[in-house]
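User: I'm writing a tutorial on reading structure tokens. Could you give me a worked example: one chain, its sequence, then its tokens, then a sentence or two explaining what the tokens reveal?
Assistant: Sure. Here is the example chain.
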Amino acid sequence: MSWGRGVVIAVCVLFFAVSSAGADDSTTESWLPHPDDATWTYAWTDSFFSKTPTKEKVTVKENTGSAFTLAWTTEDLDNPPAATSSIGTVAFQETGGGLINTDWSSNSPPPQFPILCAAVARCGNSLASTYYNIIWGGRVPVLSAPLLEGASWSSTGGAANDVASSSEYMGTEDVTVPAFDKPVKAAVVQSDITQAGALGDPYGSGVRTVWWVYGVGPVKVLFEHSGGSAAPVTTAELQSTSLSPKAPPPDANYFPLDKGLKARYSWTNTKWLKKASVQDFVVDQVVNNSARVSVKTVSGPIKVAGAYGFTLRSDGVTNIWGTTSTASLVKLPALGPKKLPVGKRRHFFTPFDLMTYGFNPLFTAYPTTADSWEGKVSGRDYKVYGVTGTSKVLGIQKVKVPAGTFDALAVRTTLSQPGFPWGSGTRTSWFAAGRGLVKLVFAHGDHSTSRVELLK
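And here are its predicted structure tokens:
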């Protein structure tokens, strides 16, 4: 019997649409890998409504690009008669913003469980399985990507989107589960879940913690339901799997998009801007790891006000738009490309203009010294900038600027804009975890050098 079916509806958010382009559809290297032959077996209990441990075997039912469906069953697992009988499916899609749940179906929940709807009839909610506890209250996303230090997100769930959650990545820790003979490193995600208006809404509310192991998926779930010290607790642990745990990717956030984050920069150029242009930046809007960063002048010969849009996705940090209004007392060289009318060409008026110029991404989601990427002679960035070149992560370097000394991620980019030496050269940018850009040096093709430093 099909039961509890859910459908995701696209929503337009604030000031720009979120795209799933560039999502990682790998079936082996992710927080929930799904090769065709993968299997997982979980055992779960509820301290009040289902005290007898129930084993569930999960398999991959279907793989279609970035979308996949898992199926579970309690049959043929030697479960005792008092265990919960369950069979169902749960569908996911890997997007640039994270793992989302798109659908589910199963048999009806056991009659002794709380009713998680406002009415008994046609209730499409249940917590009587491992994966129902994982997707409850947080379907878009189930798990945000990239999973970096300080990550937090809000989501909804339930058949009528009547369950809300606020989730936070707590970092990594070693966890012990029966599936492995020694502790494994897991990413810990804690969610505060609320449901109001359901007959059993205390049971639908509470604090859930999920331990995710890279290369395996969720290995442990602890849902402490609301209702005081005697409230039920649901626990699920991975008993066995065909997959092997892998070391999690680095979680340092070198370009945090945290609302209210502020930075003040100075920008000079050895030939064209000898008196520093000092500008303030602030992250003033954030939705789903997409943010607007505003800029205004503090002092110097360039008077500017504007804003930039950035996204943090599984393919890295991307600048998606920018707009400025400027009055300058200095005349700076022109930028190309030649094929664009003069009025549509970009300019260097702010440190972020220097930082984002050329091609995306600024750097990859989990940057390592093996990462490099090229500016293509096609696509949006080439139409806007007409620039080719190569970017490479150099690694972590210690840099000293007026704001302090930082261990910063260094990214070097070679840039070529034919006919425009001001738009050609070599740019090195340094990004510090939790702060973002702290230093930039752009050696232009006209033999001048721009220098940007974080003041505070």
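What the tokens reveal: The chain has four helices and 23 strands. The two ends are 61 Å apart (CA to CA).
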